[in-house]
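Hey all, sorry for the wall of text incoming. These are the two entities for the joint prediction.
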Amino acid sequence: MKRRGEWVSAFIFLLPLLFTLAVAFIYAFVRTVYFSFTDYNLFHITKFVGLDNYTQLFADYRFVLALTHSLVYAIVVTASQTFLALLLAVVLNQKIRGLTFFRASYYVPSVASSVAITLIFIWLMNRKGTINWILTMLGRYWPLIITGLALVILVQWFQVFSERRHGLPARAFDPALLGISLLIGAVVTTILGRFGIVHLYPMVDVAIPWLTTRKMFLGIPLPLLSIMMLNIWTTTPTMMLLLLAGLQDVPQELYEAAEMDGATPGQKLFHVTVPAIRPLLFMVITMGLIGTLQVFDQVAITAGVAPLESTITLAYYVYWNMFGSGGLPKVGMASAAALVLAALTLVIVFIQRRLGFSEKGWYS
Amino acid sequence: MSNQEIESVTVYKRGQAYQVDAHWLARRRVTRKVMVYSLLILLVVFMIGPLVYTLISSFSENPLSWPPSLESPRLWPPNWAAAWNLGVQGGRSGWTGGWASGGRVELAVTFRYPKSDTSPALPRVQLLAPPYESGAANPAPNTNVKVEEAQNKTLDGNDEITYNVILTHQGTETYPLLPMAVIGPAGSEFVRATLPPVSVSSRSSGTYLTWKNVTPGAIGYVFNSFIGAWTTYKGRGGVNLFPRWIVNSFMIAGIRILITTLFATMAAFALARLRFPGRNALFFFIIFTMMVPGQVTFISNYLVVRDGVFGLSHLFGMKTFLNTFWALFLPSLVSTSAVFMMKQFMESIPKEIEEAARIDGASTFRIYTQIILPLCKPAIAAVGVILTFQGSWNEFFWPMVVLTQDSKFTLPIGLNFFLHYYNSVTGSVWGMILAGTVISVIPILIIFILFQRYFVEGFHMSGIKQ
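and here's what came out:
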């Protein structure tokens, strides 16, 4: 059926959207590009400065810090959360009853506001906070923990060894044997602790200043690392649920066939599981990279306690140049940095396109 | 008998076939189930634990105590009764307490002393000034204090002496708080009191017990941190700003929901159902905008809002839209992610219904209002109402840019401001911040529990917007 004048009504229906896109997006984008070539500061007469902002940007140690922080943040967080999520999903891959309940609990931190979650973390990561207390306790109990772990490994190895000797296909992590090993480990460790054969380590109060420090750990500032941990904690379970849903569609026969062909657990993971959920995995990684590259909220909130140089990321650098530095807003610098951030995002999107993902794959 | 024989099953491991009995296999299946569920529950504890711990700690006097403790006297029911009784004795109310004309409060405090023949000196009582931020008047001038020995027991070679601290109100004023300290003589040890003090400290000059409020009333006692969050920060004219931030957040979310439901469905309808040149290009552009970080566009948007959206603000008699709620709606007048999700939903509606209506001569507008909108109710509920509420309630970046006046804050901005405003080193301030955090999480949590399904769908669909 031919409908004439349909585009007129379409235009009317699209008017609010087009207005928003035109003003808040296209106009804004063009202006940001324009500002990035000027020395605009919201007050004085604007002068065209060519590429000065960009050269200044790379001369500003804060920008270089922000750029490296953003990249490190994106890579570390995405890699850890994807790895952990995949690991959990593989372990949990079976029919789960009451999944609605579990899913709800795992989503709660993602549903709550970033401010609420970050405030809770700032509190937990206080010098006298609960995380330091847990570490203090670990420091006190580590002889017992190590003993327990060693016992479990020993008993498990012994059991697996004897089952195999009897011609049974026991795996290293055989669940039935592991249950027995855990039980024996726990009981023996308790007895050893009770009778003072294994001593507790003397109490040493751990007082790590997670956020209020310029110290580095593995080359990453400790406050940034804390924000990373917060982010990994929030998103891993939701990613795990996404991957789990994908894994449950992988036919069990594939694993059985692989087993018959003599595949090792690693081969099963990389030659059966990963290829089967590759589109999903890819989505999780791109999603993660884009989201983490743009991290702002957590950084802005911890900015109240942590030193700027230890947390600053690209998104926060943009904001900081506008409103945070206390001086006149450096609109040009902010714009140039924002465009660098946008470019990084687009590079990821471009790679994702090039590797050939249909729209369907993205949002399935 | 042959059916008693254990069934044998073939199992493959690394390409080798094994004969195992069925029980062997069944045992593994069951234990694996147990382990999977244990891990699931462990994860629940890991994800929900910090939030539950936050909730419990928001009732504690000092959430930064070392070692941390899950015990909070405010969550201990006998103390609720004591707080109620003291509130009633204070002359105002058993719920919210206060120190009013005609009040007479009896507080029993027990100290332990090493056994001796001479009876120890009576504890001293000091009425304290209410904390500066509360702005309350000092009740000390109108309060008479009397201390008498009520009971003397010998226990394990120590004397346990209970004193009654009797306070009588001799004026006519009403005070919201009655802060007090009782100082036992040196060498004494605090045992118990009608209402537990908020702090106990032993110094060479004696044992100091302090109460923030001797006449708290049940609610005033249990929800002390919450009342603190609610009332401590005041704006111009002494207005409590925390409740105003809640109202602001709800109001903004409400308007957002209306706007999104209307404009996003309109745009989605055109994209899903109408043919026009450049439709696909527009759709791809929408996806593109969803991936561009807000930091790229906020500079210009800030200026547009500051200048009143090309002077539009002058129509409302304002020079700028900064620090008004109008500013919040501009960049998200039409949320592109909502358009995207609505469009996906509308495409699932069979075309035939619409075609039939068209043959009957219905206009595009009528098809939108009378066919598409009613059929889209689930999508409107999910995307337009619930996800929009969540997005608006939690939004941080843009409100922080355009709202700088404390009376206009939304809840997340206000909470973030709390962290900066109170020097967040001391524990009791954290009680307040955590209480505020708990209050801010409750509405979104209730909605999440009621409409979990929609959230999960939304997460899956709008994955790229983290």
